[in-house]
Automatic annotation (TrEMBL):
The lineage of its organism: Bacteria, Bacillati, Actinomycetota, Actinomycetes, Mycobacteriales. It comes from the Bacteria. InterPro entries: Aldolase_TIM, HMGL, PYR_CT. Keywords: Lyase, Metal-binding. Belongs to the HMG-CoA lyase family. Pfam families: HMGL-like. It comes from Mycobacterium talmoniae. PANTHER family: HYDROXYMETHYLGLUTARYL-COA LYASE (PTHR42738). This is (R)-citramalyl-CoA lyase.
Amino acid sequence: MIDVVEVSPRDGLQNESVLLPTAAKVELIRRAVAAGARRIEAVSFVRPDAVPAMADAEAVLDGIPRSDGVSYIGLVLNQRGYARAQAASVDEINVVVPVTETFSRRNQNAGAEDLMAMAEEVAANAARIGLPCSVTLAVAFGCPFEGEVDPERVVAFGVRAARAGAVEVAIADTVGVGVPMQVRRLVGDLRAELPATPLRVHFHNTRNTGYANATTAVDLGVTRIDASIGGIGGCPFAPKATGNIATEDLVYLLHRSGLETGLDLQTLIDAAGFLSDALGKQVPALLPRAGSFPGSLALSHHG
């Protein structure tokens, strides 16, 4: 079973020029749940002036359907965000730490080492109260400002996160520059250092390598993959971002490969149509345009 973590309500919407009302965000999350999503990054607790699309995080969490088996994740960038996430009763938190100095300062106005120390403190505090905390290492495959990233630095940050109490470590191709060779190197090195810590991967399709990277990760035994309905989104601080890998495109690929996800393809396609209408443009995902195969929905099944 591949655990597809739905990130369209957060990473998807944060980079869109159209600011959706709270009700539309709640409807997107409702549709994701209806499709079978069980881990959803619903909101981020960031400064409204920095990321206006996330200004209504608490209102979104107040409006979403709460049901057994569905875990809502709140992204936090600092201690203030962590406090807000706790107060809003998220099921999990995800702390993002860029591994390069320049991106850290452009994205979060602090140095990478300072942000890693903050993440260690948040992870430890969350562990003490039993709140699951994952740490996502941003620009792990390449930085728009510094270029290539040393894999040893990524692994070192991952080890620190796990030792501090993070229950999951994610590697993110924030600007969509990664290729399968890098996936093999980073996953292999992290597994060697953290054999008991689950890994998650987060790919953007900016240079059309996201799905190749995802299948490489699956071949290596990674079972947790971020994806976004419609393929929308990206980091506002990543130049020329063109979107995440699309949940429906990824699910089609996995199902055709004989792998289960627990997600229903038609419901995902319908959700992508909803997003296209809400955003006033065609979403990047290809499956809603081409349809499934063979037949219209022969492989759209629950796991």
